[in-house]
Design brief:
32% helix; Ribosomal Protein S8, Chain: A, domain 1; alpha+beta; globular
Length: 92
């Protein structure tokens, strides 16, 4: 892979942020969730990990600013990631 080249990721109802730097997450969330909405994927699990909460806070702040987000729930259920994941519900 060439540095600066876009990373291609499969669009599913799950976005795992472990491989990304916190500074990359804002644009990634917008692009990924917009693509999900266009494909009719309206429930997306965002995995941000438990850690210190910095990444989670940034994710939640960004979600709160996005018009396509109907709501989000954190923590996810114990079976779907608990404190390390947030469910995002997109507008149809």
């Amino acid at each position: 892979m060439i540095e600066g080249e876009p990373v291609r990721i499969e669009i599913t109802n799950e976005l795992d942020l472990h491989a990304f730097q916190p500074r990359e997450v804002g644009d990634l969330l917008v692009d990924y969730l917009s693509e999900c909405q266009q494909r009719g994927i309206l429930q997306v699990r965002v995995i941000h990990g438990k850690g210190t909460g910095t990444l989670r806070s940034g994710v939640h702040q960004k979600l709160g600013q996005m018009e396509i987000v109907q709501s989000f729930t954190w923590p996810a259920s114990a079976q779907t990631g608990g404190w390390g994941a947030t469910w995002v519900f997109l507008k149809a």
